[in-house]
Amino acid sequence: MTTMQEPMGPLGTPIEVPAAPVPAVLPAAAAPARRDREPYLRVTWTDPVTGARGHLVVHTLRSGIATGGTRMRAGCTLSEVEDLARGMAAKTAAFDLPVGGAKGGIDFDPKDPRAVGVLERFCEAMRPWIDAHWVTAEDLGVPQHLIDEVFARIGLGQSYHAAISRSADPAATLARVRQGLDARVPGGLLGDVIGGYGVAHACLGAASAFGWAVAGTTVAIQGIGTMGGGAAWYLHEAGMRVVAMADAAGTLYDPAGLDVPALLELRDGFGEIDRTRLPAGVAQLPRSAVVGLPADVFVPAAISYAITPDNSYDVAARVVVEAANAATTPEAEAMLAARGVPVVPDFVANAGAAAWAWWLLLGRVGMSRDDAVTAEESFTMLRTQMADKVRLLLDRWVADGVPPRLTGLGLAVSDLDDTAARSALVIP
Length: 428
Ligand SMILES: NC(=O)c1ccc[n+]([C@@H]2O[C@H](COP(=O)([O-])OP(=O)(O)OC[C@H]3O[C@@H](n4cnc5c(N)ncnc54)[C@H](O)[C@@H]3O)[C@@H](O)[C@H]2O)c1
Known about the structure:
There is one protein chain. By secondary structure, this protein is α/β, with parallel strands linked by helices. It has 2 domains: 126 residues, Rossmann fold; 204 residues, NAD(P)-binding Rossmann-like Domain (Rossmann fold). 39% of the residues lie in helices and 14% in strands. The chain has a 7-stranded mixed β-sheet. It is globular and about 55 Å long. It binds nicotinamide-adenine-dinucleotide. Nicotinamide-adenine-dinucleotide binds next to helix 8 and strand 10.
């Protein structure tokens, strides 16, 4: 394989980026098996005011709790929410969290002025679940501050309510959780950027596994909201060259490297960049262009099903790191594998947000109540766990051609088979 864009060093000298190691035997073009079984529960709700449909799918309950965010987008379907809930179950299992997986999804445009009302009525309708069994959080189209505001308005405090209410001192636990979420770190608030930090370290782990120098490695990112924006920030900070960033309005491209902090400053509340204030030298391309631009790493960080058989041959990257949930369809993933392009799966690459929320709830981070200490222990724990998992996945890919998703599901498999609580859930 060749690099399509020759990377340049700071003084304009080319940097050697070795070709990505391709397994001696490429996997057959069969979809990597995704473990399947009936979800524990599916609920569909119709908003009496707008007619919008909303869904909750609980894939697995463990310790009586399932965890997973709530998304809002026009066109969101029950089967999409079911895929996402299954992914959450794999995520909690792979990161050894003592809870099951779930997801909420509402078929409505988050930019519609009625969207907050729809979200509030959805949460009210799901009250028995969010009161006791479903810990939800932000997701596509629903920022954390918004879902927290809605929970507060309906008298449930914060979106982790079902877990917090199990604590011996819920008021103290709520204060600890809020402090952790709001701790100031480079790039924003810890609760907003931690998921993207994990994605950035999945990308850095891939570069390390393939022997690529960070400064010589290029990355293209689709979606620059909570996840993509955080990933872009920390990749830029680490010295990787972010050459393309796309939002819902289009793709911004500069092969010399985008000024990530400057562009992130130009975002609105929906993760879209103000095109009237773009720095010089940034090319504006169609939204779909980001998939095929020359970059070593492609990070889909927006919609589900971003890579399908229709565009999988357009992917120019040498590795795909999924920040978005269900970003690659099974068929597209098999086509990429047959071309020697591994996919670091969503339930590992983007698990930082969910894993960290539970580390905070379980008291594995944040007990000091000191922002700097919380930030340091959170970053260290996530960086270490992500590096270990990505290394394991890509070493098996290089050595035996095993798709990373299969290896990852192997990490999760024993826990997925155990729907009963194996460890008591204790919220300090
Ligand atoms: N927020 C989290 O904590 C979290 C955690 C794990 C996984 N995820 C997943 O990450 C993905 C993004 O979630 P988020 O919370 O960052 O969303 P967000 O709403 O904060 O940002 C979405 C971004 O994607 C862009 N976008 C939307 N449609 C696009 C398209 N067709 N092409 C290019 N860009 C497009 C938007 O303009 C915005 O920049 C979702 O798949 C979500 O499930 C989110």
